[in-house]
Amino acid sequence: MTKRIMLGNEAFARGAYEAGVKVVSSYPGTPSTEVTESAAKYDEIYVEWAPNEKVGVEVAMGASIGGVRSLSCMKHVGLNVASDPFFTAAYTGVTGGMVVLVADDNGCHSSQNEQDSRYHGRGAGVPVLEPADSQECKDYMKLAYDISEQYDTVVLMRSSTRISHSRGIVELGERVEREKIPYVKNMQKYVAMPAMARKLHIAQEKRLNEIEEEAAEFLVGEGALEQPLNRVELNDRKIGIVTSGICYQYVKEALPDASVLKLGMVNPLPKKMIADFAQEVEKLYVIEEGNPFLEEQIRAMGVPVYGGKDMFTIQGEYSARMIRSGFGLETEASALEEATGNAEIGDAPGRPPLLCAGCPHKGLFYVLSKLKTTVLGDIGCYTLAALPPTSAMDTTLCMGGSITMAHGFEKAMETSENTVAVLGDSTFIHSGITGLVNMYYNQSHGTVIILDNRITGMTGHQDNPASGRNAKGEPAPAIDIATLAKAIGIQHVVEIDPFDVKELERVIKEETAREALSVIITKRPCAMIVKQTNIPRNITDRCRLCKQCMKIGCPAIEEEAGHPIIVADRCVGCGLCQRVCPFDAIDSADTQESEGQ
Amino acid sequence: MDKNILIVGVGGQGTLLASVLLGNLALAKGYDVKLSEVHGMSQRGGDVVTHVKISDGKVKSPLIEKGEADMIIGFEKLEAYRWLPQLKKGGAMFVNTQEIFPMPVVMGQVEYPEDIDKMLADTAGSVKEFNAMKIASECGSTKAVNVVLLGAASEALPFEQEEWMKVIEENVKPKFVELNKNAFMMGQQA
Ligand SMILES: Cc1ncc(C[n+]2csc(CCOP(=O)(O)OP(=O)(O)O)c2C)c(N)n1
After folding, report:
1. Closest approach of B189 to chain A, Cα-based (Å)
2. I need a surface site. Which of A57, A367, A421, A591 has the fewest CB within 10 A?
3. Which residues contact residue A579 at a Cβ distance below 8 angstroms, ignoring those fewer than 6 apart?
């Protein structure tokens, strides 16, 4: 038997592979991205990047109706975008097994909120599975496809940052190929118009009840690893804990002697099992990150809950230590406490993330910062420009929100002067296009800046419809953003290199002053996907200490005794600092050497 | 046997490879192991941390909490300092002396702490601070700084020399295997 160390996300992909999945369509989003990237490495699976999550779920649904097993993966906020098809697919059910995988981000490691996606599963009325380590990620995936086909339902696989981005040991199995289920037209099932939808809703409720009744028989894992999906681990009866997912691990570490009901399926809840467990223990606690999803339902069953959200927060991530202290248990003093009497370090300066050396976005935000432009921003690497030293972003709400909010802002302010919407290429394709159509149709005079760095940067460089490659890394047609804008009917479309800061400044001034809608596309590939010259720059004695170069926020530029310096091993030689220097005081290190010779 | 190793640094410094090597060593030796990593936004020059938990029993929580780390491997001084609260009484620190100023320091809003060396020395059971960047660059690539640090830390880890060499062979691109083996051994001598 082969064992591997696998990221939770790799294990999900492995589970899909072993389950015979044929089609995967996803949009990237931390912490879910590596599921799709890992799936793309299996030749047997067709994998694509969709332009957004709604498209991804619809493609997966089409594949399911076409008779194969399918998967769509996304981060928590992605499920909001995909909710429209998701909620109705929950009515129609499936042909080939279909799983929607959603990864929540408790603690907001890389997200704009920490929403609890279990509610989406419950709201839609589909089973929700929640694994607790990498092995379970793989095993639960396989079970999910069996449940999906047996009960004719979409299954929601719920992960979180700590599950998706932890590695653990996984026993691999073999892929089982599945016969394609022959297509049979069935409008009663797949045409969700009112008369059918009412019946489909009844069927959906019925199957959810069946799943609840039969859940006690669901087994997960193979051979020696086989276990009930929902399982009771009876120990000391004084404390009984209902938990699921990553919290199970924290509970086992903090309270190894407690009795535990580990839920592998958090919707529908096994009500009888929970009530029986509550009978077995003296005090019942519910430990779950996020909202009181389990707790409120258990209380509503009339089962007394001794401790839940009154003990533990709805914010952020949990830990074993937090649970221990919630139960009043001592923890051993750390080295620091021993040495100083204090458990914390107060004076370590924060280290906020920042745009990379050579990042094309730096040119644009240097200019916007200089012009003190109001920037309705969006989500991507470029959101980092909201931080000092550029501080050039006023709002960030959700993907695509820049364009639409700029339009509303303009209607309120009755002008669009010195105001722009800024978003990346992937974000524009995700949900910016409809907003731009709206601006054109409703006669905005605004300016939209699209940062075309030829890649989806923030989530780790996934290809997209404008990058020229597909999810498998093969050449693919690339849509041209300027042509698209012009096709909408927009007259003023400018393409420009964001490192040409002088010209960019002129263009932004001109377009924001113009009483017409304009689109500026800044074109320069992400510094991480092109080979850099790697000839470091050097600040010479012509420097007059104006410190313009420090306003671009480059990680390679630091200050030493009042003088800006360039740290050679961090400089990629992009030359942006040379372009913003008013005194021509920055050279290439190699020119200097040759000058010296 | 339980070993909790915290690997800390700045996004882009190659902390992930170090943890993957440790994970595979543990797997090959039949231990249970869990790693927990940072992906996404912080990788862009923010502070990053990887938790590595190895046990001859079962690892449950993937997180190393305050006072639980047997060892901290710091790729950057301030980061080693930031994570000092996680160190167990008597724990060991292996620290690259490189300093990377975070933006608030570059902008003059706060100072880079001056007394890090003393704090580490006063707190940890043992501290080995050295210029791992310099050794890596002498070996042919500053990217090998992760393996140099692992070499230094190997004295406190339950793995044999051949096991280290094998895991490097299996997890590093063939072209860079010799460079990394060399960097590892230089780290051991540091
Ligand atoms: C609905 C939704 N899906 C996915 C994400 C995750 N995400 C954040 S930014 C981003 C894309 C960024 O790419 P791009 O717009 O090209 O900008 P870049 O990072 O390359 O500068 C993604 C996928 C999200 N925040 N919201």
Report:
1. 24
2. A591
3. A363, A499, A500, A501, A502
Residue B185 lies in a domain: no
The pLDDT score that the predictor gives to residue A430 is: 98
Number of domains chain B contains: 1
> Ligand 1: which atom is nearest the Cα of residue A431?
1
Q: Say which amino acid occupies B67.
A: G
pLDDT of residue A592: 45
Identify all chain B residues contacting A5, using CB atoms and an 8 Å cutoff: 20, 23-24, 27, 33, 35
Contact A42, A17 (CB under 8 A): yes
Using a 10 angstrom Cβ sphere, with 0-12 exposed, 13-18 middle and 19 or more buried, the burial of residue A595 is: exposed
Q: Does residue A381's CB lie within 6 angstroms of at least one atom of ligand 1?
A: yes
A512-521 per-position pLDDT tens digit: 999 999 999 9
Cα-flanking dihedrals φ and ψ of residue B6, to 5°?
A: -105, 125
Q: In ligand 1, which atom is closest to the CA atom of A52?
A: 3
Residue A355 beta carbon below 6 angstroms from any ligand 1 atom: no
Any domain includes A349 = no
How confident is the prediction along chain A (597 residues), in pLDDT tens digits per residue?
A: 799 999 999 999 999 999 999 999 999 999 999 999 999 999 999 999 999 999 999 999 999 999 999 999 999 999 999 999 999 999 999 999 999 999 999 999 999 999 999 999 999 999 999 999 999 999 999 999 999 999 999 999 999 999 999 999 999 999 999 999 999 999 999 999 999 999 999 999 999 999 999 999 999 999 988 999 999 999 999 999 999 999 999 999 999 999 999 999 999 999 999 999 999 999 999 999 999 999 999 999 999 999 999 999 999 999 999 999 999 998 889 999 999 999 999 889 999 999 999 999 999 999 999 999 999 999 999 999 999 999 999 999 999 999 999 999 999 999 999 999 999 999 999 999 999 999 999 999 999 999 999 999 999 999 999 999 999 999 999 999 999 999 999 999 999 999 999 999 999 999 999 999 999 999 999 999 988 777 889 999 999 999 999 999 999 999 988 999 999 888 999 999 999 999 999 998 765 443 333
Residue with tokens 């859940």: A215
Domain identity same for A37 and A82: yes
Q: Cα of A133 to ligand 1 centre, how many Å?
A: 27
The reply to whether B37 falls in a domain is yes
If you count DSSP H runs as helices and E runs as strands, how many of each does chain A have, helices first?
A: 23, 24
Q: Does A347 touch chain B (CB under 8 A)?
A: yes
pLDDT tens-place string over residues B123-133:
999 999 999 99
Query: Token pair 């100072």 is at which residue?
Result: B111
Kindly report the pTM of this predicted structure.
0.97
Phi, psi of A6 (to 5 degrees): -135, 140
Strand partners, A260: A233, A241
Residues of A in contact with B137 (CB under 8 A): 569
Is residue A97 domain-shared with residue A244, that is, in the same domain? no
The residue segments making up the domain with residue A158 are 3-225
Which of A166, A349, A569 comes nearest B102 by C-beta? A349
Q: Which of A306, A309, A231 is nearest to A276 (CA)?
A: A231
Identify the domain boundary among A205, A225, A245.
Answer: A225
Most B CBs within 10 A among A7, A33, A167, hence the mutation to make, goes to: A167
Pick from A134, A556, A212: nearest CA to A355: A556
Shared domain check, A563 and A504: no
Distance of CA A355 to the CA centre of its chain: 19
Is the same domain home to A384 and A430? yes
DSSP strand pairing (A23-26 vs A46-49) = parallel
Q: How many domains does chain A have?
A: 4
Q: Which of A192, A225, A258 is the last residue of a domain?
A: A225
Tokens of A581: 């220097």
- Diameter of chain A by CA atoms? 87
Question: A416 and A445 in contact (C-beta within 8 Å)?
Answer: yes
Rg (CA), chain B: 16
